[in-house]
Amino acid sequence: MTDPALTELLDLALEAARRAGALLRDGRPADLGVAATKSSPIDVVTEMDIAAEKLITGYLTDFRPDDGFLGEEGASSPGSTGIRWVIDPLDGTVNYLYGLPTWAVSIAAERDGERVVGVVEAPMRGETYRAVLGGGAYANGNALRCRPAPPLDQALVSTGFNYVGHVRAHQAEVAQQLIPRLRDIRRSGSAAVDLCDVAAGRLDGFYERGLHPWDLAAGDLIAREAGALTGGRPGLPADGDLTVAATPGVFEPLQAALEELGAWHD
Fold this sequence. Notes:
Belongs to the inositol monophosphatase superfamily. This protein is an alpha+beta fold. Helix content is 35%, strand content 26%.
């Protein structure tokens, strides 16, 4: 990577994610409870989500006070530099609340609307995933590459479920119809980790309806830089209707199956 501007953004994202990950790992209260809810009573926010986002935005602002922010827990400002940070301070909050290990800090940087840097810090795995546009993807310094494509019926695919009842009911119907066409389905509880697992060759594919920009910004870039294909419905980018990421050869048949099953709507 030779662009010094991207080097700066990557270094800042790595350090902010490391600090937030350490706070979440080492500072989790034994009596951690729900601080607020979002889309439904089971879509929760903890005090640690809020603290981690405050840490990240404060750290980045110290070095780049005029950049914009989009954060899950409310950080939002347009900025004036063309750089916007897209932050999920704790992806996998319910896992974290229950003491399960699959959660991560996700930080992406956009330049003039294009994602150029992505970092996903997974402290309980001891892994830091990173990517720069055009520079490849890495985990703890090791280059990532997605798996060679199997036939769809031998593909291991992960998904996630919404916290709104009628949405998740339809998602369960889609999964029920999709499972016989695959090797199996996994559900980790963290879209950021799932996208990185596609990049690392631990999954052949991933799909989910209802993701927000902060859920997928960093992981999408990491997956693409590892050779995966990403998108939404056929011909569209990944968005809130549908996000699909998979190794080439699995992506198109998986996307087609999801289109057939109506995975983007109730």
